[in-house]
Amino acid sequence: MILRPNVKLNFGLRVLGKRPDGFHELETLFVPCYAYCDELSVIPSEKFSIEIDGPCYRGWDPREDLTARAWRLFYDEFGIDPVQIRLFKYSPVGAGLGGGSADGAFALKAFNDIFSLGLSDGELASFAAKLGSDCPFFIYNRPMLATGRGEILEEFDLDLSAFRVEVAVPEGVSVNTKEAYAGLDNENVNSDSMPLFEVLNLPVVQWRNHLVNDFERSVFPSHPEITALKQRFYDDGALYASMSGSGSSVFALFPAKN
Questions:
Q1: Across 177-199, average pLDDT
Q2: What CATH number does the domain located at 2-155 have?
Q3: Which one is catalytic: 65, 103, 134, 214?
Q4: Which among 67, 42, 47 is positioned nearest to 57, based on CA atoms?
Q5: Is 47 a catalytic residue?
Q6: DSSP string, 215-253
Q7: CA-CA distance, 113 to 52, in Å (whole number)?
């Protein structure tokens, strides 16, 4: 079985404070994006194995990849047979696009199909949450309003047919997520902000002043390349531009060409 795990964009991202469990309370809209896709091959085998390659592979231990962790999760839970995993990384790493989370979630979906486990999307999402906060979204892979640490999802109707989406990553720039969070932990939460779902229901031309990614406050001062990329999108006529996740990617909405 061959799958093409896509990435995601964050339309607005509010960090509402640190929770007692050490995670952060979030509010964001996850939106699937197909600007970058990995290639994931899963084949039943006599012995478990995993290979990772591709232009965006950075040499991490394949056994610790989320796809391998996904197999171990289902092996422990259901006793599934070994598989051969081959993953080609085309999605940028450390860019706030969730490519690794997508790989793990898509692997769970592949195991569910290959081994006829009969799990619903909701059941798969519960397992995906054990892999990472972004993973449940990729089980559904459609616009979802996310709260909690990102695993509590509610479907959101978003029509982007009138817009063209562009995504870019500054060359050689990645953001340490822990540092991005640390830069916000000592700030006071702005509880007077408009709820995210209300902002998203405003006309897109109003998003620039209201739809905010809180991480930009902690990331932009130390990564001027990301700031410059966002400004370049606006200079080129974007109606809205934002960093995705904790960066370093930036996306923009332009009027669609007729």
A1: 74
A2: 3.30.230.10
A3: 134
A4: 67
A5: no
A6: HHHHHGGG-HHHHHHHHHHHHTT-SEEEE-TTSS-EEEE
A7: 22
